[in-house]
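Worked example 3 (structure in, sequence out).
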């Protein structure tokens, strides 16, 4: 038997999350079973538990965890993987567990030099960032404003836009300004007159906006700087009537951007071109505490679970 984390009901994680015992999964021909070494914790996981992205009672008990890293423990004959391979699983279903099973298309070889925690915390944020940049078509000719540039998605947007030659202005709290400078961005505080601060910081006019925070302030300032179609975000679903684009993997183009980004993200992380910061580690049985922590103010970086 093996442990698996589920939400037995919708509500606060401390009231809803349980550890259950389940059989170790067995793969079909094109499936892979992975012994989890590290699982990434994301705000989406907490939203699932709270029923904020759907509260269908038929889905209970709800398996949790969308990304993991580990070692192949069993592989189907057509999967292309072998027992002992070190891999990353994304997208995953039920990654908060001792073992996760996935189709081979969702299992990726872990590059040498990339540790399990960074690998487990990379891809959900990474493919989201890549989708934003691909949708915008950011090039070296752009001056890009990134709202939330020090967050998990924003940091990757910032690093990759700088690598593409773009000038990047990024918003964050003052405590994260040195981090943004290290990424190659010009930091600005979101407190006070944000539009004036961005205009003063940008050496040339802003041509595109990547929004990772979704606040009305961020969208209002963005609309004052660029046409709506040059604003691509991941959270401001309530502002799409303004003409901005919000991506979430729901369209074929968005899904394609995300699929195509995986090999490059893994290579960039292994080479140090993307740095995945780990804010904290929790044992598997404290998954509820990790979900509470990711939902509130916390250190920069990602949380991970260790079975």
């Amino acid at each position: 038997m093996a442990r698996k984390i589920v939400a037995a009901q919708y509500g606060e994680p401390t009231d809803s999350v349980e550890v259950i015992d389940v059989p170790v999964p067995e793969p079909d021909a094109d499936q892979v079973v992975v012994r989890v070494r590290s699982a990434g914790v994301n705000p989406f996981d907490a939203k699932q538990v709270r029923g904020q992205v759907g509260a269908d009672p038929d889905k209970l008990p709800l398996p949790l965890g969308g990304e993991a890293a580990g070692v192949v423990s069993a592989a189907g004959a057509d999967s292309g993987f072998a027992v002992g391979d070190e891999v990353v699983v994304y997208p995953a279903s039920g990654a908060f567990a001792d073992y996760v099973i996935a189709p081979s298309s969702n299992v990726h070889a872990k590059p040498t030099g990339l540790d399990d925690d960074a690998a487990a915390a990379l891809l959900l944020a990474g493919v989201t960032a890549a989708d934003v940049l691909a949708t915008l078509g950011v090039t070296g000719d752009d001056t890009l404003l990134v709202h939330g540039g020090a967050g998990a998605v924003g940091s990757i947007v910032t690093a990759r836009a700088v690598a593409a030659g773009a000038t990047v202005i990024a918003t964050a709290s003052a405590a994260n300004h040195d981090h943004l400078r290290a990424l190659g961005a010009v930091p600005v505080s979101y407190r006070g007159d944000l539009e004036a601060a961005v205009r003063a910081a940008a050496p040339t006019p802003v041509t595109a906006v990547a929004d990772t925070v979704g606040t009305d302030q961020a969208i209002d300032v963005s609309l004052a700087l660029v046409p709506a179609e040059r604003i691509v975000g991941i959270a401001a679903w309530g502002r799409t009537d303004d003409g901005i684009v919000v991506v979430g993997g729901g369209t074929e183009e968005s899904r394609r951007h995300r699929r195509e980004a995986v090999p490059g993200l893994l290579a960039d992380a292994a080479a140090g071109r993307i740095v995945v910061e780990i804010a904290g580690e929790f044992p598997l049985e404290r998954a509820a505490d990790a979900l509470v922590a990711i939902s509130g103010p916390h250190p920069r970086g990602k949380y991970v679970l260790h079975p």
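Notes: The longest strand covers residues 31-41. The domain at 2-110+277-306 is CATH 3.90.180.10 (Quinone Oxidoreductase; Chain A, domain 1).
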